[in-house]
Amino acid sequence: MTSTTLPSQPAAASKAAVESAIKESVNEGASTSSNADASEMASSDQAGDESIRTVFDDKEDFNVKHPLYNVWTLWFDNPSHKNASAAKGSKDSWGEDLNKVVTFDSVEEFWGLYNNIIPPSELPQKANYYLFKEGIQPAWEDPANANGGKWSIQLPRDKSRKDIDKLWLYTMLSAIGETLETTPTSPNSEDLSELITGVIMSARSNFYRIAIWTRKSDDPASVPGGDAAAVQDVVKRLMAIGQKFKTEILGFAPEQKLGGQGLMTDVEYQSHTESEKKKGRKITV
Ligand code: MGP
Prior knowledge:
Layout (H helix, E strand, L loop, with lengths): L7 H19 L4 H14 L22 E11 L6 H4 L11 E8 H8 L13 E6 L9 H4 L2 E8 H20 L19 E8 L3 E8 L13 H22 L18 E4 H4 L7 E2 L1
Antiparallel strand pairs: 1-2, 1-3, 3-5, 4-6, 4-7, 5-6, 7-8
Helix pairs in contact: 1-6
Bound molecules: 7-methyl-guanosine-5'-triphosphate.
The site of 7-methyl-guanosine-5'-triphosphate (MGP) has 10 residues, from loops.
């Protein structure tokens, strides 16, 4: 991965934790035998109560956790269960159905959560998962999002159903592992060391949408102080997030053209203010 804004120690812990989590996911088929080996090792180690047990040694009784740099909250809503006017998704009624599922601060807790919730491929239409940093509501109105925007891609449901669970998992791992952030190079009046506020998975009747929400947008007014260098720095970092989303998470080639046919879109960025307009300005990578 490229540079992150984290100090080296949490960056290393975060990277190691996310990498082991990815390995566990990729090796799911092989996990039975390796877990059996691990529990044999754990039981031969049981002489002292102080023995170190990772989640890979004992899924229930582990005593080592890999801390995440941020604390995260998973939210869920399923507006199709709401009353008729709310289900239409009007701006005023939006959010009535939003529920906090759980807050976690270690990769083991994340993994426990992930293994116990319905994957996106099985979500009902209109349902959404929101994974946001603790204290930030997954809404435009939250102060952390009010001046921000989102990178998003829409993937046709029929063609992407087999991949969507993996793509959402990789999006969440990149968020909690802080691998999409880059270091600011221009001094700013506000701490902009972290641009990402959260990630969202939306299931719709004909497509899935994955989005990455950012604290600032390409609108110069969103950047405090607003001097040209600070704005340019934020835009450069937003573009880096979009490119990593397209290539490292979604697995497309950097120059690959995606949108323009059917329900598939490009990986595109829009500020929340522009997204409220009918034909708001968009950037694509
Ligand atoms: P959506 O679900 O993000 O878009 O927003 P989608 O999937 O294109 O639309 P759907 O009808 O297929 O669900 C749908 C609508 O919800 C928006 O047009 C707004 O009216 C409302 N809405 C969405 N968000 C993220 C917010 C928000 O953060 N705040 C408020 N007040 N309303 C929102």
